[in-house]
Amino acid sequence: MKILITGGAGFIGSNFVHYWVKNHPGDEIVVLDKLAYAGNSQNLEEVKNKIKFIKGDICDPTVVDEAVSGMDVVVHFAAESHVDRSILEPDEFVQTNIVGTHRLLKAALKHRVQRFHHVSTDEVFGQIPLESKEKWNEESPYNPRSPYSASKAASDHLVRAYFTTYGLPITISNCSNNFGPFHFPEKFIPLAITNLLEGKKIPIYKPGNQVRDWLYVDDHCEAIDLVLKKGRAGETYLVGADHREYTNMEVAKMILRLLDKGDEFLEIVGDRPGHDVKYAIDSSKIRNELGWAPKHGFEERLKTTVEWYRENTGWWQAVKSGEYLKYFEQNYQNR
Ligand code: NAD
Ligand code: TYD
Fold first, then answer.
1. pLDDT tens-digit profile of 108-164?
2. Does residue 41 lie in a domain region?
3. Ligand 1 test: best mutation among 5, 6, 11, most atoms within 8 Å of CB?
4. If you measure from the C-alpha of residue 171 to the centroid of ligand 1, how many angstroms do you get, rounded to a whole number?
5. Domain interval for residue 61
6. Residue 331 falls within a domain, yes or no?
7. Would residue 128 count as lying in a domain?
8. What is the CATH number of the domain that holds 63?
9. Which of 87, 144, 187, 301 could make an SS bond with 150 (beta carbons 3.0 to 4.6 A apart)?
10. What is the Cα–Cα distance from 14 to 31, expressed in whole angstroms?
């Protein structure tokens, strides 16, 4: 099988490429990635001889047409993915996440790919009140509240429209927050770990009681593999760890303990505008229909993730320089 993986040099995409090389060694793997700030060819260093890499933009119709031509399957990860950046500069989110996805859909239809899998987020559903026991499922209404989630919601709608209007065999997965190796250190968990390793504090957006559903990245990769194998065209699957609730403050304190640091390394800073207080997923559909279940516990994998960052200081030190420092100052200076 020939599989095109967009955004394969980013966090989840590169983990997925590693997963696919290991689990489907006979397949031809092509990665299309423009190496935006979060894309890093180092993430694919170990598998570079087993894949073909195209450096290109999903918004460029010529590049996309060539990349999609001859592919059996497209798995689409490429996106602008960080909420705080979408608040500071939303334009690129509209461009890549909406226009870029549309370019890929057109090419997938033209070249009659057998499956277009769109990787999306639970953030399209908005937020759940902290005190509520509600969990989202595939029928939950869309209510995105940040430019990031609004752009992902728009892309989901386009993907579904290509199924209903043109019969393109699509599937969508909306997953909760991932964590693991190669996670760009602007996101909460890798930021917390790498800041502590640098002797700096963890910035906690006020008041720190917000809740996320943290899924280890390998479990997400397995879910996508199952959807490709057994999922029905036109269907959406929600993917989440569904563990007990952990607030951001609790997660920060767990990371402090893993790195032998005290509470003086916590710093409460001003909140993110429009901060979604809670995400929670009911993943019964993928569990019951496709037999998926997460294999990795949150606390156990948080520990191995901390170890990974401890052992790969060169990787994140190179990332936390240049453009990153400018973004960091812009995002945190007036909080
Ligand atoms: P990431 O920011 O780490 O990686 C995104 C990748 O896309 C990078 O390699 C980047 O270079 C590439 N890219 C960006 N713009 C591009 C363009 N115009 N053309 C080609 N490549 C481009 O993101 P991630 O965390 O790995 O997320 C991957 C996907 O999974 C995204 O679609 C995101 O919405 C979705 N998702 C992420 C999470 C999460 O917790 N990180 C959870 C659910 C869904
Ligand atoms: P993040 O990793 O940015 O993912 P998302 O906002 O897409 O869920 O943030 C996870 C949670 O951590 C979210 O509630 C915001 C919070 N957070 C902080 O408290 N401090 C930080 O410096 C960052 C980046 C996030």
1. 999 999 999 999 999 999 999 999 999 999 999 999 999 999 999 999 999 999 999
2. yes
3. 11
4. 17
5. 2-181+214-243+275-297
6. no
7. yes
8. 3.40.50.720
9. 144
10. 9
Do residues 152 and 144 touch, judged by C-beta distance below 8 A? Answer: yes
Q: What are the phi and psi torsion angles at 114 (to 5°)?
A: -80, -25
- In angstroms, the CA 258 to CA 256 distance is 6
Residue 185 beta carbon below 6 angstroms from any ligand 2 atom: no
Give the ranges where the chain is alpha helix by DSSP (H).
11-23, 61-68, 83-88, 91-93, 101-110, 147-166, 188-197, 217-230, 248-258, 284-290, 298-311, 313-319, 323-332
Q: Whose CA is nearest to atom 37 of ligand 1?
A: 121
Residue corresponding to tokens 């303990």: 257
Q: How far is the CA of 316 from the centre of ligand 2 (A)?
A: 18
Question: Is residue 229 in some structural domain?
Answer: yes
Regarding the beta carbon of 188 and ligand 2, being less than 6 Å apart is answered yes
Is 123 catalytic? The answer is yes
Question: Is 37 annotated in the active site?
Answer: no
Q: Is 148 a catalytic residue?
A: yes
307 CA to centre of ligand 1 in angstroms: 23
Indicate the Cα dihedral angle 262, 299, 236, 274, nearest 10°: -10
